[in-house]
Design a protein that fits this description.
Layout lengths: L12 H4 L2 H7 L5 E3 L1 E2 L2 E2 L9 E2 L10 E7 L2 E6 L13 H7 L4 H19 L11 E3 L4 E3 L6 E2 L4 E9 L3 E6 L11 E4 L6 H13 L3 E12 L4 E10 L13 E6 H10 L15 H11 L1
Parallel strand pairs: 1-6, 10-14
Antiparallel strand pairs: 1-4, 2-3, 5-6, 7-8, 8-9, 10-12, 11-15, 13-14
GO cellular component, one term: cytosol
EC number: 3.6.1.22
Cofactor: Zn(2+); Mg(2+)
Length: 289
């Protein structure tokens, strides 16, 4: 299963839009996800830490995550949103490795929502303070009437194949020997296929064809949908944009198989993409076809 996917919560949209029903669920049975800012609370058994409404301030903004086992689940909005990218949060990754797949999926969705609310307390139209409505799946501005919704940013992440080789790249922030699939945000006015072709050409100077969708992954840093694709290049000549990539190169099937077999130790050439990332699943898909 893809990391951050497969949440067991029922999002219960019919409850979100019913203020009376939502208020009726805010009782002693309600469960509140307890976090340290945006870090997950993890108990001694490696599970998420849940509390009750008594564990949060009465004036806390609470986002309704959904229903599970007949109980409403909430997450409080922290005082501040995220202040850095995913790779700059080693403590978060350490904690997340302890979570089961269902707990990781719950945390991922909760983190995305809580972070969005913490960073969108004011109206983008008039600058006035907004309020949480519909259980936290919307914010409303009483001053100008504007409604704002939690957003998910689409990002393409793609394999490029040429004569049984894959193109992978590395950014300067990556650990030594770490390579991954190229990726980039879908821009306004683009299809997924167009975004794949543009990003690959911008970053590596390669023209591609036959773009196909493979799989997707929710990525809560801060709130993205990784859209995994594959493509084919006819000309392998690379022209690397060094403002985006430190390096990019073609890897043979044998080199990638050896890196996968080596696990976290890696080979002298590279580390295989880590299992929590969709790049891992994309390269495995290509190797196992």
């Amino acid at each position: 299963m893809m990391a951050f996917s497969g949440s067991p919560l029922d999002r219960a949209d019919h409850i979100r839009v019913d203020n009376d029903a939502l208020a009726g669920l805010m009782n002693w049975r309600a469960r509140v996800l307890l976090m340290d800012g945006l870090l997950p609370g993890v108990d001694d058994m490696g599970g998420l830490v849940w509390g009750s409404l008594a564990d949060v301030p009465q004036d806390a903004e609470l986002v309704f995550l959904g229903m599970l086992d007949g109980k409403a689940h909430f997450v409080p909005v922290p005082g501040e949103g995220a202040d850095g990218p995913a790779y700059a949060m080693p403590r978060a990754w350490q904690l997340m490795t302890q979570l089961s797949p269902p707990d990781l999926a719950i945390y991922g969705g909760a983190r995305s929502l809580a972070d969005w609310h913490a960073r969108h307390r004011f109206c983008a139209r008039c600058g006035s303070a907004t309020k949480l409505v519909k259980g936290g799946w919307q914010r409303h501005c009483d001053n100008c009437g504007a409604d704002h919704f939690p957003r998910t940013d689409p990002v393409t992440i793609m394999l490029v194949e040429h004569e049984d080789r894959l193109l992978l790249g590395r950014q300067p922030r990556f650990p030594p020997k770490m390579y991954s699939a190229l990726a980039g945000f879908v821009e306004p006015g683009e299809t997924i296929e167009e975004a794949v072709a543009r990003e690959i050409h911008e970053e590596a100077g390669v023209r591609v064809r036959d773009v196909r969708y493979i799989a997707s992954q929710p990525w809560p840093f801060p709130s993205q949908l990784m859209i995994g694709c594959t493509s084919v290049a006819d000309d392998p000549t690379l022209t690397i944009d060094t403002t985006e990539l430190e390096d990019a190169r073609w890897f043979t099937r044998e080199e990638l198989q050896a890196a996968r077999a080596a696990g976290e130790a890696g080979t002298d050439l590279l580390y295989f993409p880590r299992p929590f990332a969709i790049a891992h699943h994309l390269v495995c898909w290509w190797l196992d076809r």
